[in-house]
Specification:
By secondary structure, this protein is of the alpha/beta class. Helices cover about 30% and strands about 20% of the residues.
């Protein structure tokens, strides 16, 4: 799911189906999914659950949230609700470690995966890089070089 402006990039990195979130609501209940990975956090858990197949899984990564606790209350509510509904509701928090980062580096160096890099900025232009991200124009990762 992305904007129409980013659809070609998303297809180029391997997406089989692209949904323009400006023209179509992927969780309106017309389609059902085995797994929903909620990265943005902009939709209520109940709405996301309506788009799951019976016994489907909702994974909340927790980008969005309140000022003080971030996504923690939303994640906690989903985890507490999970035993009482016919869906698996879970949260995912990335934990970087040296071994995983070295494996990822090896895959990149071998050409097995290619990160989508939008722009590279020198560290002195970090403010411009942040503005570019905040404007929502990035079509991939924004990299700072040191």
């Amino acid at each position: 799911m992305c904007s129409a402006e980013k659809a070609d990039l998303v297809r180029a990195i391997g997406a089989e189906q692209v949904i323009d979130y400006n023209t179509e609501d992927p969780v309106d209940g017309r389609r059902h999914y085995d797994v929903i990975l909620d990265i943005g956090g902009g939709r209520p858990v109940a709405r996301l659950r309506r788009a799951l197949v019976p016994h489907g899984t909702l994974v909340i990564t927790g980008e969005d949230g309140g000022r003080w606790l971030g996504p923690i209350p939303r994640n906690l509510r989903a985890l507490l609700l999970s035993p009482w509904v016919n869906h698996r509701l879970t949260a995912f928090v990335a934990r970087q470690n040296h071994d995983d980062l070295m494996e990822l580096t090896g895959l990149i160096e071998a050409g097995a995966i290619t990160p989508a890099v939008d722009r590279v900025y020198p560290l002195a232009e970090a403010a411009a890089a942040l503005r570019h991200l905040a404007d929502g124009r990035a079509r991939g990762k924004v990299v700072l070089t040191i």
